[in-house]
Amino acid sequence: KAAELRDRLLSCQASCEIERHPDEADFASDEENRAVAASMIERDRQTLSHVLKALEILALGDYGFCQETGEAIGIKRLLLVPESLYSVES
Description:
This is DnaK suppressor protein. Pfam families: zf-dskA_traR. InterPro entries: DnaK_N, Znf_DskA_TraR. With about 90 residues, the protein is an all-alpha fold. It has a domain at about 1-60. The chain has three helices and no strands. It has helices at about 1-15, 25-60, 75-80.
């Protein structure tokens, strides 16, 4: 998952090169597309950060425990979001 996210981030950044259009509508559309792409890139960066942190925690033998409370993270949550660092309660 980490490699996939890295590749997607690099691809997205490469496709977000600024183009200049004389038409204001095209320019506005491009601006909106860049804003959406930036939002997606930020979300993927956060996910990648959580995946890498979860891998570190796994290597330490502490995977599955909330980083805030130390309590076990529910199995359903871990199955849905394996990179979860926190329990639902925290």
